[in-house]
Amino acid sequence: MLNKITFWNLITLTLILLVSFFGVYFINYPMIIDIWEVIYILEWEKMFFLFLGMVILSLIFALFPLKKMSYGNKFQKILLVLNVLILLYTFCYTISTFAKNKSELRKIENEYIEQAKKDVKNDKVTFKFAGGLPVPEYDKNTYDKIDSIRKKYGIIYFNTGCIVDYKAIEAQKKYEIIVKPYLEKRNGKNWEAKMNDEIQKVKSDYKKDR
């Protein structure tokens, strides 16, 4: 049967693993990741050496003489203290990082909301997306025609590059909440389908000429 200190050591070790595991979700907020990504992201090797380091430190500090306490008892108590410290640090770091991410997201969302109001006023709605530098599928003239169709409906698509900014992606949703009712009022119902049909016709015409 486990003694009390061993039991609490196992509990704290389990909590460290749980906080580290679920902490990946909070630290990477607002990025949505699944359980397999969490397992992949977790730095298991570093965690192993961290636990190994705590055991070694506990073994060393347990060498210091204390009255009426066995070496094994000293070792487990020191290990428990270290486990609690690591648990508190991991928890506090996770919460502070999550709070920072939330604060940054709110700031970016407010910027997108203000930008949406300006774009509606200027009749120049911009949808941003991360797409890198794709290989050109059509010639310049065809792309100019596609851009012209989009501008007719009051929108512009802007490629932000290869780096995916999940905060910007979330903030874009706030932007769309404001601009989409305006675009529907401006262009009528099912305007996106009409626009896409026009764009598809331009693309088809290009392919026919090849």
Automatic annotation (TrEMBL):
Official protein name in the record: Uncharacterized protein
Source domain of life: Bacteria
Transmembrane segments: 7-27, 47-66, 78-99
Record keywords, A-Z: Membrane, Transmembrane, Transmembrane helix
